[in-house]
Design a protein that fits this description.
heterodimer, A: alpha/beta, Rossmann fold, 6-stranded mixed beta sheet, 4-stranded antiparallel beta sheet, 10 strands, globular, B: alpha/beta, 8-stranded mixed beta sheet, 8 helices, 26% helix
Amino acid sequence: MLNMNHVTVTYNDRPTLIDFDLHMKQGEIVSLVGESGSGKTTAIRALFGLLPHEGYVSDGDILFEGESLLSKSEDEMARLRGSRISMIFQDSGAMINPIRRIGAQFVEYIRKHEKISKKEAYRKGVAMLEAMRLPDGDNIMRSYGFQLSGGMRQRVGIAMAMTFRPDLLLADEPTSALDVTTQAQIVRQMMDLNKKTGTSIIIVTHNLGVAAYMSDRILVMQNGRIVEQGDREQILKHPQQEYTQKLLAAIPTMEGEAYV
Amino acid sequence: MSENEKRIVLEAREVTRIFPASNNRQLVANDKVSLTLHAGETLGIVGESGCGKSTFVRMLAQLDKPTSGEIHIFGDDISGLKGSAKRKSRRHVQMVFQDPADSFSPKMKVKDILCEPLMNYGLIKPKEKQTIAEYLLSQVELPTDFADRYTHSMSGGQRQRIAIARALALEPEILICDEATSALDVSVQKSIVDLLLSIQKKKEIAIVLICHDVALTRSMAHTAAVMYLGNVVEVVPGKQLGHGMCHPYTEALRGAIFSIDMDFSKPIESIESETPSPLDVPQGCPFAGRCDKCMDVCRITKPFLREVEPGHQIACHLYNKTN
């Protein structure tokens, strides 16, 4: 479904993502892990066509369902984004306009991609929110972003992203700003969606535990390159690269050593 | 010397902090929090956002005053101090914040940042700045030529080291770390943890560690307290964090952690509901509405902390039967 062939992204003549190669099947969950500045976010931004002005794909190609995304016009990309490829961000609160109600924004978004009446769009929004197990979707449609908790805002973000049952969901640190219990809820819901709708997911996270729990494949990144990839067993139990081993050793665990 | 005989440096007695809210409501951020801290030891406080852990340590650092209750440092109540007495006692407690970038003035050189607390108390002359700054930098394992640099050119880990150096400048007996490693990558986090531990050993400093990472708290804390909606629900020896804990909230918290050595064949557990707003904490046990072991008594009477075994306190009606 998705082929990223040797993609290199350059910012101001400096390559930030080097020779990134990723091939995904429908329904697969892949996670990108690594420390800040390792190029994980750049990789999915390139795919979503949202690189900042000074950044561009200088080498390689990105094929989605066999079509190159790089040769698409801005209009074509805009149609694709939000319907067939969606993205959720670290803080969905930041993407919600604080002075407009959630409902107005949700309806606008739905009507951008589908020719239906406002009423129908509203009903569809409420149904999506309730599918995300948000109690009282009607009430949430009438709320402003700041009236919701971080976990609820994130669920609104996922509900919006999933409205058109995209083929591919990109999640950039979707749980990093959340508490552990909320994080577990969000992770569970993303996996439910994956099972029910067959949406493929690329998740960027620095939490190796989340990555291991969710994904079929883990890509470990450092300095813009993929240093190692494999399934959970390979990465956690038999890491080959020194960097992966160091990364694993630095994570405090419940079973690990105590210093005091 | 056994742990019980260690000198108590800090004792909070039934500290309550209530913030006024709109419509004459009250937000109870801390409800009768009682905790003690021993010299050279670490007290870890874990809990989710809004549970009142930051409010509590802000009062320890005298950035805020409790509504009621007492905070004793070396036996003296500091909660009502004013003026120069307050100023003097603040020296004993220093704080390291979560975001190192936000806790410095971008226009100050590192040596000015490091020496500002000392200058404030008139302990050094401006001439001595350079030497003192270099000494403080060496304590946090940074090169001494950092003294003349600005913090914006540094990495997150380096900045956090400078924050620690500044906190240590006044040689405090108590160091408060409010999510001091949460914004850092894991490998950097580990180096900061190692640094804190070695400083603690060398100087016998007592540390109050606020952290939402239960695993990290377990590895560092001698004593760990779990907070929920302004209440301390469980206090355990650090080593027991994870295994010997029994409060239903602690169990829920532990069940929701993703770890690299978890059992991946089991689905992740977590309570489905949202934390109630601290503006309307339920009557009775604060966790009653989300607890799967909730009994009738839980909705009526609030359980208080009681000791179930040495060093292990728990506030839950399930553990009252023995008494």
